[in-house]
């Protein structure tokens, strides 16, 4: 079997799916870092002031709901709409999910405590994140389909995982630092961090529009 140079794999049809996957992973790991941080931040700083047990309960509930949703509904949704439409729809859910953070901050500041309105908003955020998570399976589909032949599939997946690992290494540190900086300097009332990630989500939505409309069968 001939060894194919890695440089020959850096074509638009391969790089675009990997770039989508990398930015998706970066935004996702940043969101995962912000969730417990926002939950634990005191209410007077714009967080929810949850106890560790409450944070664990909310995250556990999300994990169970996410697993059930992906298992029972993802395949049906992709079968009906196609992977590109699902991907673009899913990544579009990131901005609304981010917007719920300042909404909850405003509610807790206005009401002085976590009440039913905040609980409903938090459940809405979880639903948006469930929809957002569908983008990962779609990204895997596009990366796999981008391989022109089977013998380069491992190299392409390795390139994708290496790129994503770097994104996931940077994401949590950057997200938490931006969160602290926004709160410390009261940038946009402490909400500048969310605006930055919403802009990046817009870039991902634009990048997703460059994915192929249909997944083509790979030559064997």
From TrEMBL:
Q: Where in the cell is it found?
A: Membrane
Q: Which InterPro entries match?
A: MFS_trans_sf (IPR036259)
Mark the transmembrane ranges.
12-35, 55-74, 86-108, 120-143, 188-208
Query: What are the record keywords, sorted?
Result: Membrane, Transmembrane, Transmembrane helix, Transport
Q: Which domain of life is it from?
A: Eukaryota
* Gene3D superfamilies reported for this sequence: MFS general substrate transporter like domains (1.20.1250.20)
Q: Name one GO cellular component term.
A: membrane
Please tell me where this protein is predominantly located. membrane
Q: How does it sit in the membrane?
A: Multi-pass membrane protein
Protein name according to UniProt: Major facilitator superfamily (MFS) profile domain-containing protein
């Amino acid at each position: 079997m001939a060894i194919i140079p890695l440089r020959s794999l850096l074509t638009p049809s391969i790089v675009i799916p990997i770039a989508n996957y990398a930015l998706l992973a970066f935004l996702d790991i940043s969101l995962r870092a912000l969730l417990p941080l926002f939950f634990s931040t005191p209410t007077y700083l714009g967080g929810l002031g949850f106890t560790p047990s409450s944070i664990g309960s909310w995250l556990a509930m999300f994990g169970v709901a996410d697993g059930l949703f992906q298992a029972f509904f993802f395949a049906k949704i992709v079968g009906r709409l196609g992977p590109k439409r699902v991907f673009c729809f899913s990544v579009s859910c990131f901005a609304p999910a981010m917007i719920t953070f300042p909404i909850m901050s405003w509610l807790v500041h206005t009401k002085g405590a976590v009440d039913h309105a905040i609980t409903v908003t938090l459940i809405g955020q979880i639903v948006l994140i469930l929809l957002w998570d569908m983008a990962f399976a779609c990204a895997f589909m596009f990366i796999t389909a981008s391989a022109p032949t089977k013998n380069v599939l491992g190299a392409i997946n390795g390139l994708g995982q290496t790129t994503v690992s770097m994104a996931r290494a940077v994401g949590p540190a950057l997200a938490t630092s931006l969160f602290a900086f926004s709160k410390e300097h009261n940038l946009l009332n402490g909400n500048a961090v969310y605006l930055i990630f919403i802009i990046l989500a817009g870039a991902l939505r634009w990048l997703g529009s460059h994915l192929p409309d249909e997944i083509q069968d790979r030559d064997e």
